[in-house]
Each structure stands twice: as C-alpha cells, then as structure tokens.
Amino acid sequence: MVDLNREPMPRQDSKQRRQNFSEVALGYGDKQAFSEAKRCIQCPKQPCITGCPVGIDIPAFIDAMLKKDMPTAARILKNKNSLPAICGRVCPQESQCEAVCTLAKKGAPIAIGRLERYVADWERNNKPGIVNTDLPNLGGKGVAVVGSGPAGLTAAADLAKLGYRVTIFEGLHEPGGVLMYGIPEFRLPKEIVTSEVDYVVSLGVELRLDSLVGKLFTIDELLANGYDAVFLGTGAGLPMFLNIPGENLNGIYSANEFLTRINLMKAYRFPEYDTPVKIGKRVAVIGGGNVAMDSARCAIRLGSDEVYIVYRRSEQEMPARREEIENAMEEGIHFRFLTNPKLFIGNEKNWVMGMECLEMELGEPDTSGRRRPIVKPGTEFVMDVDELVVALGTTPNPLIASTTPDLETTKYGTLLANADTGRTVKDSVWAGGDVITGSDTVISAMGAGKRAAADIDGYLKTR
Amino acid sequence: MGNDTHPIKHTQKLKKERHTCERTAEMSATSPNLILFREDLAPNIHLLKVNAPVISEKIRAGQFAIVRVGEKGERIPLTFADWDEKEGSITLIFMQVGTSTHKLALMQPDDFITNLVGPLGKPTHIDKFGTVLCVGGGIGIAPITPIVRALKAVGNEVISIIGARGKELLFWENRLHNISDELIVCTDDGSYGRGVLVTEVLHELCSSGRQIDRVFTIGPAIMMKFCAEATRPFDIKTIASLNSIMVDGTGMCGCCRVSINNQTRFACVDGPEFDAHQVDWDELMSRQCTYVDEEKYSMLEWQNRRDKPV
Predict the structure, then answer these.
(1) Cis peptide bond prior to A271, omega within 30° of 0
(2) Mean of per-residue pLDDT scores for chain A
(3) CB contact under 8 A, B58 and A241
(4) Is the complex ipTM more than 0.85?
(5) In which element (H, E) is residue A123 found?
(6) Which residues on A lie below 8 Å from B2 (Cβ)?
(7) Which of A207, A400, B79, B85 has CA 20 to 30 A from B201's CA?
(8) CB atoms near residue A335 (< 10 Å)
(9) Does B8 contact chain A (CB < 8 Å)?
(10) How far apart are CA B153 and CA A334, in angstroms?
(11) Rounded to two decimals, what is the model's pTM?
C-alpha cells in the first residue's frame, strides 16, 4: 500500500518568525525523516535521478537511511553534490526531482529535498569522517576557479576530487557568493554555508579571498602563472534598475545592496555590526522573484510596519517559489499585483516619500511564455512609501568580460559558452552558472559547475 | 559566524605570532595586510603603510582599496595615497570620522588589517595634456599626490593647489612641493599659506589668461562642486574623484550610484573619476548623508562598548 501522507516540514510560527532572522524551516526530526523515507517505493525507473541537475542517486541514499546507515547516505549525497545542506534548503525540488517522482502523479512526491537536508545536517553534526583523504594527484595541473558561489564551489570540489590543484579566487571577504550575500539567514543559515565551504577546502582547494579577478589578476595572467585552465563562476551580480525618474533618491535600494547589507554585512545586528541599513515604515519591494520575497521578508523582520510586494503581472506569473510566496503571505507581506511604478517622488531632503504607479492588465504571452503586462492608461495612483527595494533581477558583472578581450558576451551581458560543457570561445577558459544563464537557481549553477569540471578534466587529460 | 575557523585566517594568526618575534623581508612578503608603519599626520588624520605585495604591483593612480577592520567591521573605500612595488607596500591615509575609521585608527604596526581588497575602480586617465591644475582639499591631498606624480612623469606642467581648514590639518606639503612645478597652499582660517578657499585660487588661475589644459580635483564633494563651477565658464575639462558611499566596491550593489549627464553610473566600477561638469553634485551630497543618524548612533554605541570595563 502506497503511503500518500507526505510529512510536513516543521516551521517557526509566522508571528514569531517575523521578529527574528532564525531559520524558518526547522528540518525533520528522526521520526519524521524515517517515516518520509519509508514512503519511497524504490521504483525501478528512478526518474528522480534524472530530475536532479547533479544526478544524485536519490533512491540509494533513501535506502541507506532506512538501513540506518547514515554515513553511507551522506557519502552517496556528497558523491554527486558537494553542498547538500545548501541544496536541501534552497533547491526548487518541486520542479526538479520531486516533480518527476513516481508518487508525484498521486499528488504526494517524496520530500526529497527535506530528506537531503536531514542527511546533510546529520553529517555536519556527527562528522563521521567521510572526507576522502586519499585524493589522486595529477602531476600538479592547476585550475583557477573565479568566484566562490555555487558554480565555483562545485567545480572546485569536483576538480579537487579528480586530483587537480585548485585555487578559488573570491572578490569579497567571505566565500559563498550569492549564498552569503544574497540568500537570507532565515532561509539558509550562514553557518551552513561556512561549513560546506570548509568541506570544499578540506579537499585541498586553496581559497583566496579579497582577490578580485579582472582587477588584481586578469584571466591571461592566471593562465600564464601556473593555471592550465580557468573556470568562471562569477555569477550575475549587476543589479538592474527601472531607469525611471527619482530612482537615485535616498531610501531606494537595489535588492543586491539591501540584501548584501543585511546578509553579508549583518546589518540586522547593527550597531553590534558596523554596517547600517535603513528601516522604513512603509516599504515596497518591486519584483516577483525569490529575491523580492527575500527582501520583503527581511524588511518585515527588521521592524518595518507595512511591507508590499509590487509586481506588474498577476500571482500566477510570479517566478518565486510557491513555498516562498506562501511564507511571505503568512508573515503579513501585502501583495499589489498588476501594478508597475512610473516614477518615484522625493521630499525636500531627497528622501523617497512615494511612488506613482500604473495599473496593468495581461495581454498575449511573450517570449518568456508568461502573459505580457500592458499599461492601463490613466490609472495612475500614488503609494506612500518611505523605502524601496528594486528586485528586478541581475545581469553578469562586466568586469571580467571587459578585461578579457577574447571572451564574447551576448546582448544580455552574459558570457557566450557551450551550454553542455561550459567552454567559452577563449582557449582554456570555461564558464558556468548565472554568468552564462543570467539569474537562475543555485542547483542549475552547481550542475553547470559539475559539467564544466568534467569537461575540463577531459581536456586537461589530453594535454 | 565561524570565521575564526577559516583556514586562511588561521594562517594569518600564526604568521602574526611569528612576527612578534622577528620580522624579516621574506616573512613580510608572505604576510599580506600586515601594518608596517604608521604615522599620525595631523589631528585625526593617519597614515598606514601596509604590506600588500600583490596589490602593490597592480595599482595605478586614481584607484582605491576597500578595507575592513574586524569581523563586524564595515567595508570602507580608501583611495591609494602611495605604493611601493619593490617594498611590496601600499599606503592609505584616512581621517577619523565614524566607527570604522576610528577602529582603523587604533591599528598599529604588526597588526593586521582584517581585509584589504584592490585595486578597485578605473585608473586616472593620464596623458600629456600640457598645463594641469591638481586641487586637493583636506584628506583629498593624499589621493591627488599619485595623480600629480603620474601627470608629471609624462611631461605635464603641474600646478598643485592644496587646502585645509587650518595649518594643523595640512600634510604632505613637502612631498607635493617636490613633485609639482608649482605648489599653492591655502587654509580656510588663514593660519598658513593663502587664507582663501582652493576654489578661489582655481578661479584666479583660470581667469589669469594662462593656458590651462585640464583640472583634477579631489576633496569634499562641496569643494569639488565649486571647482567644477570655477572651471565651467572657461570650458576647461575638469575631472573629479567621487567619494560616494560603497558596500562591495565591485559593481554589485549600486549603493555608490551617481548621475553623470543624467545617466546613472556606479562610482566603484565606472569611476571613481568623472567629468566634474556632468556630475549631479546635489544628488551625490544628499546620498552621502543617507546614514548620518546611524553613523552617530553607531559611534555612541561603540564608545559605550569600549568604555565598559572588561
């Protein structure tokens, strides 16, 4: 008899969690984890493995869990995924492994992400020593990995496991990229990122922080100084703005700035930490993705009275994960759909005090497949706000492309690279993650890092 | 945050212990961010020479660093005042204003700056322009110096104008005297040199009929704004180094955005130098004041914490 009762995720109560930055999803207890694992029917087709961008042997790790062999379960995870505690928290499993689970047809897929988190957390807390200390040595061939976000960490870990000498160059003072500056503590505790990074370092990867490639070293200098290949996992760090009047008024943040202040610089603990962030009374976040949800949920936790998500399409078109939209709604975030800002209004001291908006309606689907928002003329109205966060998305930072003349970029600013292998048009240079796709998920960046690492290995073996 | 467990930071700690015994040239080459030398130039103005061999090889005039003191510190941008590739050092000069610069001012030789990243920003466009005026006001005297040197090195005639509120706040007069063709020193209170604002000297020189081909200005925004106004009627291209608030300094956050000819630009990656005649100075000045209240509060809280007996 197939059990269709998916174990719910225990979460912090919405009233309570509005007051803190502690993790919202608390993770399965032992009993829940085993009861969920038991639901897996170990079907012969194993569609979940192909649904996973990094190809984790999901049925095998669940089976190991049921046999109470947690070290083996952890080893199976880490065999394909160097950052399971992160993926178990932030992967959109509902559109990947869980979407293709045989039980999904009956509306109750195995909660693979929650089980992954459970195993990864067990491993972190129990340190069973599954780290492979007997790594091959490939005669000192070196690979430089630029950026320590999900793509870079994955490529670095895979290459180190294959025996390469790997150095990660990170421009910021902390490793982790978007995992550190972008995703808030309440979704992904930074302690977990640090511990996953420590694992990658334990594989022999050298980590050079405060080293901005494109300024401190060019790609050609890396290739001329002991690195046989370069992997660019530099992400999409350049914030987009609306380019409408008043956007440079005080009190208007890009989501990148707002979140970097809060997450990387810990402004939510100001003045214990030195970096401040403004706490508006009425805050509007413009955009409908996960970053918009993260920004709004940060604002409510900082103590803002009213927080609005302003989105130009309707709820159905929102690109954020369903779970995050629901979390935001539970926490009392207001949603203004089919609304688009036209201009920002400042007071006499150049602080934002309002936003003139237009109502929108939906037309025919556009290239993204979502219905195109169309302005309803004459519908202008003003929203009183004293703080704004623009969360429209990001494009790659042009720094590396502009200092590496023989790389090619698309009109969107992304690097041109083979989608399967990550090879760029420049010899010995690979790229993967948001720098070639534009803003995408952590796991797709990790998948790209993995594929590029395999291709780099194939290439370097022939040399 | 488990930062103390970070392998890189561990190594730095170990190296620091070794350094307290004996510092050798070889050791300092492997100890980035070690403070080699400190000088108090004026009340609340300090100079730190920091071991940074890799960075020192890459810097060009006009570029800046971001430093952070302590695991709870802010990232603050400071334009390089000097560097020495042979010695592998960089020199930063700063004024004690808020919590972060007060923390930096506590640093002594053999201490480590927690984080130092650079060189950031675009270098100054250096060319043989002819006769160039370089105006440095207050703490801006420090970053104008490498620009003067670079301009001089390619054969420009360089007239430097430096100013401060009073005599006690002036520094590097000799250094600028040695590398400029002419040096004019001003103080607001008339305690030394000419008792006028630098912008007044600038205006005099522009209207003297003397051929002036370019002006560079670094200092408080209000001073740079009036430098721009002084040269505008004479149509002399004027370059200003903008000191907007930054977080990452690598083009990621947009905190430092400025309006240049009505277009939004990021001071950290598109600048920090821009055509002074195209800068929206009032916007820059109002954005610089974003955290005035928080800065005061932070300072108070920090002082309270420091004053508490351990």
Answers:
(1) yes
(2) 93
(3) no
(4) yes
(5) helix A112-126
(6) 191, 194-195
(7) B79
(8) 17
(9) yes
(10) 61
(11) 0.92
Number of other residues whose CB lies within 10 A of the CB of residue B102: 17
Per-residue pLDDT of chain B (310 residues; tens, 9 = 90+): 333 333 344 334 434 443 333 444 444 456 899 999 999 999 999 999 999 999 999 999 999 999 999 999 999 999 999 999 999 999 999 999 999 999 999 999 999 999 999 999 999 999 999 999 999 999 999 999 999 999 999 999 999 999 999 999 999 999 999 999 999 999 999 999 999 999 999 999 999 989 999 999 999 999 999 999 999 999 999 999 999 999 999 999 999 999 999 999 999 999 999 999 999 999 999 999 999 999 999 999 998 888 765 4
Q: How far is residue B61's CA from residue A62's CA, in Å, rounded to a whole number?
A: 59
Cis? peptide before A44, omega within 30° of 0: no
Of B1, B5, B298, nearest to A190 by CB-CB distance is: B1
Cβ atoms within 10 Å, residue A146: 29
Whether chain A has a CB inside 8 Å of the CB on B296: the answer is no
* Nearest in space to A374 (alpha carbons), one of A313, A418, A445: A313
Residue A86's nearest CA partner among A117, A112, A115, A61 is A117
Locate tokens 């943040």: which residue? Answer: A253
Which residues lie below 8 Å from residue A318, measured CB to CB, with a gap of 6+? A288, A289, A311, A325
Peptide bond into A92 cis (omega under 30): no
CB distance B144 to B135 below 8 Å: yes
Inter-axis angle of helices A58-66 and A112-126, nearest 10: 60
DSSP, collapsed to helix, strand or coil, labels residue A391 as coil
- The predicted pLDDT at position B6 comes to 38
> What is the per-residue pLDDT across A234-290, written as a single tens digit (0 to 9) for each?
999 899 999 999 999 999 999 999 999 999 999 999 999 999 999 999 999 999 999
Strand partners, A381: A357
Q: If residue A199 lies in a helix (H) or strand (E), which one and from where to where?
A: helix A190-202
SS3 B96: coil
Distance between start and end Cα atoms, chain B: 22
- Give the alpha-carbon dihedral of B94, B98, B102, B103, to 10 degrees: -110
pLDDT of residue A133: 52
Question: Cβ–Cβ of A239/B252 closer than 8 Å?
Answer: yes
In chain A, whose CA is at the least distance from the CA of B260?
A248
Paired strand residues for B115 = B68
Q: C-alpha distances in angstroms, A456 versus A142, A400, A429, A451?
A: 11, 20, 9, 9
Three-point CA angle A174, A176, A182, nearest 5°: 95
Please, where are the H alpha helices in chain B? 7-21, 25-29, 53-56, 99-105, 141-153, 173-179, 198-207, 221-231, 267-270, 281-288, 292-307
Report B:74-133 residues touching A (Cβ under 8 A).
74-75, 99-100, 103, 114-120
Percentage of chain A beyond pLDDT 90 is 84
- Please list, in sequence order, all residues whose beta carbon lies within 8 angstroms of the beta carbon of residue A405, skipping any fewer than 6 positions away: none
Low-confidence residues of chain A: pLDDT under 70: 128-139
Domains of chain A: 14-126 (1.10.1060.10), 142-237+395-462 (3.50.50.60), 241-392 (3.50.50.60)
Q: Which helix (H) or strand (E) holds A401?
A: helix A399-403
User: Max alpha carbon distance in chain B (Å)?
Assistant: 65
Q: Where are the beta strands (DSSP E) in B43-87?
A: 45-51, 64-68, 76-79, 82-84
Strand residues in A213-286 grouped as ranges (E): 229-232, 238-239, 252-254, 282-286
Q: Hey, of B245, B248, B291, B306, which one would you mutate to test binding to chain A, going by the most A CBs within 10 A of its CB?
A: B248
Which amino acid appears at position A32 of this protein?
Q
- In three-state secondary structure terms, B294 is helix
